[in-house]
Amino acid sequence: MSQSKCGVVAVVGRPNVGKSTLMNGLIGEHLSITSSKPQTTRHRVLGVMTQPVKDVPTQFIFVDTPGFQTKHSNALNKTMNRAVLTALADVNVILWVVEQGKVGHADLKVLELCPKEVPVVAVVNKLDQLNDKNLVLPFLQKLGEMRNFAAIVPLSAQAGKNLDALKEVVSGLLPEQPFFYEEDTLTDRPEKFLAAERIREKLFRLVGDELPYTCTVVIDRFVIEEGRRVIHASILVDRQSHKAMIIGKGGEKLKRIASEARQDMERLFDGRVHLETWVKVRSGWADNASLLQSLGYE
Ligand code: GDP
Ligand code: MG
Q1: Are residues 206 and 163 in the same domain?
Q2: Which residues have any ligand 1 atom within 6 Å of their CB?
C-alpha cells in the first residue's frame, strides 16, 4: 500500500461563480448551500472526501469560502472577508474559480489575495453554458498569461463534468502524510449548523430578491427523540414587514421553506426529522458584532 496523501484545498472566487456547487460536486453531497443569488455562503464550510486516486489513498479537505465582498462594509461582510483570508493562510492548494468567458476586476482581486507560495489551480466553471466550443481555448490561454497556475481545468460543477480531472490534478499537489480525519468524515461542522444552513438556503431560493440578506437562522433546540431529530429553528428578520413576507399568505411560504428544508435535512442526516420554525424580528442583527458571534460567525 502506498503512502497516503492528505491536504487542505481552499475554494475561492468572486460571488456566484459556483464555488459551493463545485465543492458539493467534488465530495458528492449537497453540503454547502447554493443559490442563484450572490453571497449565499456566509461561513467557511469544510467538506472532507477520502478516496483513492490512482490507487493512492487520498483525503481532500475542501474549504468553501464566502465570496470576497467589497460592496457593503458592515460587520457581517468584514467577518466574511476575514474568513476568506484566514482560509488562504495555511492551505496546500487553492482552487481559484471563475466563470467561462468572464474574468473581471472582482476575480482578479481574489487572485491577488492568493499567497505566492501556494499552488493555484484555475478552475473555469459553467462550461455547459458555452455554445461555441471554439471560445474555450483562447480563454484558457488568456488565463494562462495571468499567473503561473499549477493547472487550468475547465469543467461544469453543476453537470458534474470533468470533476475527476480536477481531483487528479489536486491530488498531485497534495503532500504525502496521514489523514487528518476519519475516512467517513464529511465535515467538521455540527449537524446543528448544517440544519440552520438548509433553512438559509431555502430563504435564498424561495424568498424575494433582497430579503434573504437581511435574515439569519438560529437553532433553538436540536435533540434526538424516538429515533428522529427534533429541531426548533428561528428565522431572525430585520423588520415586522419582512416577517410577514416570509410567513406568506396563510403561512404558505413558511410552510414550503420548512418542508423543503426538512426533506434536505433527512437526506443529509439519513434519518427522520421533525422541524418547527418561527420567524422573529431582531432589528440590526447583521451589524451587531456580538450578536454575530453568538450566531456562530467567526
Ligand atoms: P458561489 O457563490 O460561488 O458559492 O456560487 P454557487 O455555488 O452558490 O452557485 C451560484 C449559481 O451558479 C447557482 O445558481 C448555481 O446553480 C450556478 N452554477 C454553479 N455551477 C454551475 C455550472 O457548472 N453550470 C451552470 N450553468 N450553473 C452553475
Ligand atoms: Mg457559496
Answers
A1: no
A2: 13, 15-21, 34-36, 40-41, 67, 125-126, 128-129, 156-159
